[in-house]
Give the backbone structure.
Amino acid sequence: EVYCSRKKRFFLCLYVKTNKIYFKKKNNPEFPLLLNMAKFDIIFVCETWLNTSLPDSITTVIDYHVYRSDREICRGGGVAIFYKKSLHLKNIQVTQELALPETILCELTLNITFRFLLCYRAPDYD
């Protein structure tokens, strides 16, 4: 539970492990629909299969911003955090000790401060 503007409300988060979240074609039409219908505040996604050649517009969902950390050298992997545009989620630079290739660290301040760390470590990662 989180108190916002003197109102008690629940803060809804979702974790999803998916394969490919391209939104502009027929690859995954359910994902944007899920986001818009379920009204989650923050959605954590692993295995996005996005890479730096794909623009941010491919992950556009109404009422959400996104932070991405794409896999750079081979296909698969990648993480993303979708968050409501009404929230002020701040992306924090990951320290070298925490740094994995696909990592996002964010901070959200409401009446208290939350830190979220999302990372994907492939099974064969050394």
